[in-house]
Amino acid sequence: xxxxxxxxxxxxxxxxxxxxxxxxxxxxxxxxxxxxxxxxxxxxxxxxxxxxxxxxxxxxxxxxx
Length: 65
What we know:
The chain is α+β, with helices and mostly antiparallel strands. It is built from 3 helices and 2 strands. The protein has helices spanning 3-18, 23-30, 34-46, and strands at 50-53, 60-63.
């Protein structure tokens, strides 16, 4: 499993356990920078894996059903 796949799985597990994820959750859980977390969350949103709700400080990511 590649590092990227491991990160994706970690984000999805976090999302399932918490119900939603914010960027800082992804940063902390993965031990990555803000930009890396943003890129990963954006990619998952573009692929339809996550749904983005809210704006700026209230932005949360939910697992797509």
